[in-house]
Amino acid sequence: MIAIILVKFKKSAKEVAEYGSKVLKNVPKYIKIKASYWTMGRYDAVWIVEAPNEEKLFEWFLKAGRIDVAKTETMVALTREKVMKMLSSVK
Questions:
Q1: pLDDT computed for residue 37 by the predictor
Q2: The CATH fold of domain 2-88
């Protein structure tokens, strides 16, 4: 499954970057960070992550800890092709 994680910093960019580096060094093998961007606007960063399922993604979040550094909003993403297959089976 693919997840898009929107990140809003709660601490300084430097503190968030330091903590983020620690988190990225400890990403389990079953999680793949497909992309990581710092952004301008409503959110300060966007991560695109691949995980085997929602439970494994949540497990990684719990192990990362420290919710005082950033606030996140996570969205599960489906490819257009997958949605089109799903729509074709809807009666």
A1: 97
A2: Alpha-Beta Plaits (3.30.70)
| Rounded-to-5 percentages of helix, strand, coil across the chain | 35, 30, 30
**Which regions of the chain are under pLDDT 50?**
none
**Phi and psi, residue 42, nearest 5°:** -60, -35
In angstroms, the CA 66 to CA 31 distance is 19
**DSSP structure class, residue 41:** S
Q: How far apart are CA 90 and CA 17, in angstroms?
A: 45
Q: Tell me the one-letter amino acid at 74.
A: T
The model's pTM is 0.86
